[in-house]
Specification:
By secondary structure, the protein is of the alpha/beta class. The chain is built from 13 helices and 16 strands. It has a 7-stranded mixed beta sheet with strand order 4-5-3-6-16-7-12, with helices on both faces. It is globular and about 60 Å long. Keywords: Signal. InterPro entries: Peptidase_C15-like_sf. This is Pyroglutamyl peptidase. It comes from Streptomyces nojiriensis.
């Protein structure tokens, strides 16, 4: 019965929050904070609470414009009242999951041209990113009358709005199952208008049926991960990928992590390294990993595994077939500390025996780490599964005027990158 109530609640929420002209959220049939018996407000938003560095960027009016122009303003506006209507921790937990899943589904539908609203290009990943942050900021300001585990509620909202929940493969016989991950925008202190083409590709492809290069059908499922070390430390990558490697008809046949990489090219990364070494480059909350090129570190809580893991994706088939509009290259670069050595050495032909990882082909940042974590898990749970990492070209084309949020070149480039991600997957997942 609980599952039926959850399904009905989510369906009602989608029916009310998603259209342009929305009614009140169905989970909480209110448009204002709940009232106590004496008429006083039973729930309020704190006037001032500490926000993290990522949430603090919401003070820039352009972030609100991206949400509104993506058609997601009602998610942010109505979420506080929905929170205030909850009566206990369990109800609050169900609500944040329902709203998170509704935001994810709305973003997928919008990216795939199934949901009108706003004047941004459908595949733009930024409305999801900034709407989610607006909702987490509302959660931080929420002052319920009961004791709430705010960190746990945020984790539920994050997982649900990133595709980690209620996003299983359909178990159709004969259909290959492809699971991918993308990332949020990052580097926002330098340019707050940035998008991430890997996140856009994930939204455009999630749930899509495609025809592989061998003519067979496949279904793609996707998640969009945060650019935050703390979420990786807390096991978000493993939560995302483990259910797709558990065996049975709902498991993936191939996994591929995707992130934004180098200007003008796609790269299939031959090697993922175990270390973090990207400091002083911060994550989205301005946190550092503690690892540098000279002194790499291992992520907290990372399970046992080798210093380097090699891709098992069919690199030759992909690079031999997909080269337009961007070249696709196999990147075998690594940085290591050789056995018996103390200084990092750059190599173009992979690691040497007994060396310590400093960086994989994708560097020592979270794009390398998502590849390592997902493929370490793959070697443990499903070693037969093809897996690896794809770097997209850097997304360019934002208008010179900093107040202009989008433009034709930017939109063309984002669409072209997403289309080529699909082409890579169609060749990588073909049966061999």
């Amino acid at each position: 019965m609980m599952l039926l109530r959850r399904a009905a609640s989510a369906a009602a929420l989608l029916a009310t929050v998603l259209p342009l002209a929305v009614a009140s959220p169905a989970h909480a049939d209110v448009a204002a904070p709940a009232q106590a018996a004496d008429g006083s407000t039973a729930c309020r938003a704190a006037a001032s609470v500490p926000l993290d560095a990522e949430q603090a960027r919401l003070s820039d009016a352009r972030t609100t414009a991206l949400v509104e122009r993506g058609g997601f303003g009602d998610f942010v506006r109505r979420f506080p009242a929905a929170l205030c209507a909850t009566r206990d921790p369990a109800e609050a937990g169900r609500l944040v999951t329902d709203w998170g899943e509704a935001l994810w589904q709305a973003s997928v539908r919008r990216a795939q041209g199934q949901r009108p609203g706003g004047d941004l290009a459908p595949g733009d990943d930024r409305p999801l990113y900034w709407a989610r942050l607006g909702m987490t900021a509302a959660l931080a300001r929420w002052q319920p009358e009961f004791t709430a585990d705010r960190a746990a509620l945020r984790a539920r909202l994050e997982d649900a709005s990133r595709g980690l929940t209620n996003n299983a493969f359909r178990t159709t016989p004969g259909v290959r199952r492809v699971f991918i991950s993308g990332f949020d925008p990052f580097g926002l202190d330098a340019e707050i208008r940035r998008a991430n083409p890997s996140g856009s590709a994930a939204l455009r492809l999630n749930g899509r049926r495609v025809t592989l290069a061998d003519g067979s059908p496949a279904e793609i499922r996707a998640v969009v991960l945060p650019v935050r070390y703390a979420d990786f430390d807390a096991g978000m990558v493993e939560r995302a990928f483990a259910p797709r490697m558990a065996g049975g008809p709902a498991s993936a046949d191939i996994i591929t992590t995707v992130s934004q990489g180098y200007p003008g090219i796609f790269t299939l990364e031959d090697w993922a390294g175990r270390a973090r070494s990207a400091d002083p480059y911060p994550d989205n909350v301005r946190a550092l990993s503690g690892g540098t090129r000279e002194h790499p570190v291992t992520a907290p809580g990372l399970g046992p595994g080798p210093e380097f893991i090699r891709t098992t994706l069919p690199a030759g088939a992909v690079t031999g077939a997909v080269q337009s509009p961007y070249p696709v290259l196999l990147n075998s670069d690594v940085t290591e500390i050789p056995a018996g050595g103390t200084a990092p050495v750059d190599r173009t032909d992979g690691p040497t025996p007994g060396s310590r990882a400093v960086a994989g082909g994708g560097g020592g940042y979270l794009s390398n780490e998502v590849a390592y974590r997902s493929n370490r898990l793959r070697t443990e749970l499903a070693p037969h599964l093809p897996g690896g990492h794809l770097h997209t070209p850097v997304l360019t084309g934002l208008p010179a005027d900093p107040q202009e949020l989008t433009g034709p070149e930017f939109e063309r480039n984002e669409s072209a990158i997403a289309a080529e991600v699909r082409a890579v997957l169609e060749h990588a997942a073909a049966r061999r």
